């Protein structure tokens, strides 16, 4: 019942917003969510949108992918940046905004540095350095591990891929990062992971249910610039 109640309230707000839209003024509120540690330029998107629509307030929330998907389906969020793994996100519209291969970053003096690839099972036997829980890369890694009955041994966390690679250089473990972050880094090599993992992020929105003018305007802008 809760999703339907939220949808009904959103519909009432939508009527008010539609009346303003007819008069050339869009007002209202937008709730947007995102996984942590991504490369999307949200600050530029939000600032430009606010300049064009100062009567629209925006709430930005960081959360794990499962919570973001639930928020979209229940009507608590108008849009979100989510990680795409093997799971099907039924009922959501998706636009991929980033797609990078994930690699295992190892120090050049590590015993694994003589290899070109590493299996996910073997990777889970080592000390891992990863982005925080809720980030796109972490969500993708954990989802793939669960599907294979594996549990990653994450001992260190950092908020950016560059910081992870720096920890690898210090010999603290193996990092799972998008491939571009390992290029041109002295002291670090990239091993391809098998089965292959990709860091895919998407702009997501709910396909069913009412969408007010404020949310519609924001999603149109986000789809154009992200």
TrEMBL record:
Signal peptide feature range: none
Residue ranges of the TM segments: none
GO CC, alphabetical: protein-DNA complex
Lineage: superkingdom: Bacteria
Domain LysR substrate-binding: from-to ranges: 25-225
GO terms for MF: DNA binding; DNA-binding transcription factor activity
Coiled-coil positions: none
Keyword Transcription regulation: yes
UniProt keywords, alphabetically: Activator, DNA-binding, Transcription, Transcription regulation
Pfam families the UniProt entry points to: LysR_substrate
Family: Belongs to the LysR transcriptional regulatory family.
Name by which UniProt lists this protein: LysR substrate binding domain protein
């Amino acid at each position: 019942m809760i999703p339907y109640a939220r949808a009904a309230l959103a519909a009432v707000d939508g009527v008010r917003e539609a009346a303003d839209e007819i008069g050339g003024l869009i007002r209202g509120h937008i709730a947007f969510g995102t996984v942590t540690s991504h490369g999307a330029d949200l600050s530029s998107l939000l600032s430009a949108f606010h300049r064009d629509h100062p009567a629209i307030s925006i709430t930005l929330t960081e959360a794990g992918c499962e919570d973001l998907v639930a928020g979209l389906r229940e009507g608590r969020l108008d849009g979100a940046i989510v990680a795409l793994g093997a799971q099907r996100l039924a009922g959501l519209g998706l636009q991929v905004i980033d797609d990078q291969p994930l690699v295992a970053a190892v120090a050049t003096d590590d015993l694994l540095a003589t290899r070109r690839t590493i299996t996910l099972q073997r990777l889970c036997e080592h000390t891992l350095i990863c982005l925080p829980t809720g980030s796109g890369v972490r969500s993708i890694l954990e989802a793939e591990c669960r599907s294979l009955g594996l549990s990653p041994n994450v001992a260190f966390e950092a908020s950016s891929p560059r910081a992870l690679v720096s920890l690898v250089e210090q010999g603290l473990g193996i990092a799972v990062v998008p491939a571009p972050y390992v290029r041109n880094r002295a002291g670090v090599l990239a091993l391809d992971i098998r089965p292959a993992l990709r860091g895919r992020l998407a702009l997501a929105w709910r396909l069913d249910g009412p969408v007010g003018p404020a949310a519609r305007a924001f999603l149109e802008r986000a789809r154009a610039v992200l």
